[in-house]
UniProtKB/TrEMBL annotation:
It comes from Musa acuminata subsp. malaccensis. GO terms for molecular function: cyclin-dependent protein serine/threonine kinase regulator activity. InterPro entries: Cyclin, Cyclin-like_dom, Cyclin-like_sf, Cyclin_A/B-like, Cyclin_C-dom, Cyclin_N, Cyclins_cyclin-box. Signal peptide: none annotated. PROSITE patterns: CYCLINS. This is Cyclin N-terminal domain-containing protein. Belongs to the cyclin family. Cyclin AB subfamily. GO terms for biological process: cell division; G1/S transition of mitotic cell cycle; response to gamma radiation. Residues 207-291, 304-386 form the Cyclin-like domain. Keywords: Cell cycle, Cell division, Cyclin. One of its GO terms (cellular component) is cytoplasm. SMART domains: CYCLIN (SM00385), Cyclin_C (SM01332). Pfam families: Cyclin_C, Cyclin_N. Residues 300-417 form the Cyclin C-terminal domain.
C-alpha cells in the first residue's frame, strides 16, 4: 500500500495504518482520563521567570522574555523577592556546565529537554490587582508625558490656503527677526553724543512726521521704519538742529521707497517742510543716510511683531487700533528706545487688552508666541499706561488727534488701564 501524504488536503490516513516510524503512540502521552499530567505540559504556572533544573540533567534554563510590563512587575516586588531571585540566579549559573555560556542558556530558540525539566513554583506571579495597578501606572505615565510635551498652539491653520501668509516657514521668519532685532536698534544713549539736539527736539520731529504720514495716507510700516532710520542715523552722525527736520523728511522718503507702492515725489516733501530745504539738499542727505547705515533698510521694527502678536491674541478691530495707538505714543518717547521692538509690541497688546477688559489679561497662547510673561512686560506696560493717560495733554498731541478720528474708531477716547500702575503682577 502506497504511503499517504499527511500534508495533502482532503486526504486522511486510514485508521488501520500503523507505520508510525519514530513517532510515539497516542496512548503513550498519558491523555487517558485520570492519568497524571505530562511533566512538560505548558500551563500558567509554567510561565514563570525561570524554571528549576532537574538534578540529573542540568542542561538549559527556560526563561520568560523580559517585556516592559514584566520589568515593571519585578521592579515593584519587595527587596526580599529580589534577593531571593539573585540567589536563584547564582545557583543556576553554578549548575551550568562550563561548555554552555550564559547567553546560550537564555536563548529561547533552543529546545528544552522536556522529559527531565520540572516547572518551578518558588516565585509567585503578580495578582490580578497588582497587574491592573501597574497598567494604571503606565497609563498615568503616558498622560503625564503628554501634558509635559505641550506644543505651541497653531495660529496659522486659518491661513493654510493663503500663499502670502507663508505658513510653512512663518515661524522661521520670526525666529530670524528675534535674532536680528537687537542689531537693528539704536543705542538708547545716543543723545549724549549730540551737541546741538536733545530728546525734546526728537519728540517734536517724530510728532510732526506722524501727522505727515497721516496726511499722505502712507502704510503703517513706513512710519515705523522712518523712526528707525532717524534713530540709527543720529546714533552714528552728529546733526545740527537746523538740519534735523531735513533728516526726518529724508528718512521718510527712504522708508517710502522701501515700503510703499506709490512713493511721494521729492517736491511734495519740499512743500510739506515749507520749502525749508531744496531738492538737492534732500538728495544729498539721502546719500549720506544710506552710506552711514550701509544701505541696511531691512530691520525688524515693532510693526512686524505687532502683526504676529495680534494674531496670537486673536484680536479684533478694536484691540488692533488701541494697540497701535499705544505703540505710536511710544515712538515719540526717547526713553522707550531701551526696549526691544518685540517687547514693545507685546507690551502694547497686553496694555490694550487690560484697558479694554478692565483686568489683567494675557493668554497662554500670547505668552508662548511672544516669549514674554506678564512680569517681563510690567515696566514697559506701566510707561505705556502713563503715555495713554497724558496723550491729549501738552503740545505733542499728533497721535491723539490721529486716533480721535472716525477712521481710527475714536480709539483715543478709550480709558487707560490705570490699575496696572498701582498693583504688581502676580506670577
Amino acid at each position: 500500500m502506497d504511503r499517504v501524504d499527511e500534508n495533502s488536503r482532503g486526504m486522511m490516513k486510514p485508521a488501520t495504518f500503523r507505520d508510525m516510524g519514530d513517532r510515539r503512540a497516542l496512548k503513550d502521552i498519558r491523555n487517558l482520563v485520570g492519568a497524571p499530567p505530562y511533566p512538560c505540559a505548558i500551563n500558567k504556572r509554567g510561565l514563570t521567570e525561570k524554571s528549576n533544573l532537574d538534578d540529573k540533567n542540568p542542561s538549559f534554563v527556560a526563561r520568560r522574555p523580559v517585556t516592559r510590563k514584566f520589568a515593571a512587575t519585578l521592579a515593584s516586588k519587595p527587596q526580599a523577592y529580589r534577593q531571593h531571585e539573585q540567589v536563584g540566579n547564582e545557583s543556576q549559573h553554578e549548575m551550568l556546565p562550563p561548555s554552555v555560556s550564559s547567553s546560550t542558556a537564555l536563548d529561547s530558540s533552543i529546545a528544552i529537554d522536556v522529559d527531565n525539566c520540572s516547572l518551578s513554583d518558588d516565585i509567585e506571579l503578580p495578582t490580578v490587582e497588582e497587574m491592573e495597578e501597574m497598567d494604571n501606572c503606565d497609563l498615568k505615565e503616558v498622560e503625564m508625558e503628554d501634558i509635559v510635551a505641550e506644543t505651541v498652539p497653531d495660529i496659522d491653520s486659518c491661513d493654510s490656503n493663503n500663499t502670502l501668509a507663508v505658513v510653512e516657514y512663518v515661524e522661521e521668519i520670526y525666529n530670524f527677526y528675534r535674532q536680528t532685532e537687537v542689531t537693528g536698534c539704536a543705542s538708547p544713549q545716543y543723545m549724549s553724543h549730540q551737541f546741538d539736539i536733545n530728546e525734546k527736539m526728537r519728540a517734536i520731529l517724530i510728532d510732526w512726521l506722524i501727522e505727515v504720514h497721516y496726511k499722505f495716507e502712507l502704510m503703517e510700516e513706513t512710519l515705523f521704519l522712518t523712526v528707525n532710520i532717524i534713530d540709527r542715523f543720529l546714533a552714528r552722525q552728529t546733526v545740527v538742529r537746523k538740519k534735523l527736520q531735513l533728516v526726518g523728511v529724508t528718512a521718510m522718503l527712504l522708508a517710502c521707497k522701501y515700503e510703499e507702492v506709490s512713493v511721494p515725489v521729492v517736491e511734495d516733501l519740499v512743500l510739506i517742510s515749507d520749502r525749508a530745504y531744496t531738492r538737492d539738499e534732500i538728495l544729498d542727505m539721502e546719500r549720506l543716510i544710506l552710506n552711514t547705515l550701509q544701505f541696511n533698510m531691512s530691520v525688524p521694527t515693532p510693526y512686524v511683531f505687532m502683526r504676529r502678536f495680534l494674531k496670537a491674541a486673536d484680536s479684533d478691530r478694536k484691540l488692533e487700533l488701541l494697540s497701535f495707538f499705544i505703540i505710536e505714543l511710544c515712538l515719540v518717547e526717547y526713553k522707550m528706545l531701551k526696549f526691544r521692538p518685540s517687547l514693545l509690541a507685546a507690551a502694547a497688546i497686553y496694555t490694550a487688552q487690560c484697558s479694554l477688559r478692565g483686568f489683567k489679561y494675557w493668554t497662554k497662547t500670547s505668552e508662548m508666541h511672544t516669549a514674554y510673561s506678564e512680569e517681563q512686560l510690567l515696566e514697559c506696560t506701566q510707561l505705556m499706561v502713563d503715555f495713554h493717560q497724558k496723550a491729549g495733554l501738552g503740545k505733542l498731541t499728533g497721535v491723539h488727534r490721529k486716533y480721535s478720528t472716525f477712521k481710527y474708531g475714536h480709539t483715543a477716547k478709550s480709558a487707560p488701564a490705570l490699575f496696572l500702575m498701582n498693583t504688581g503682577l502676580q506670577c
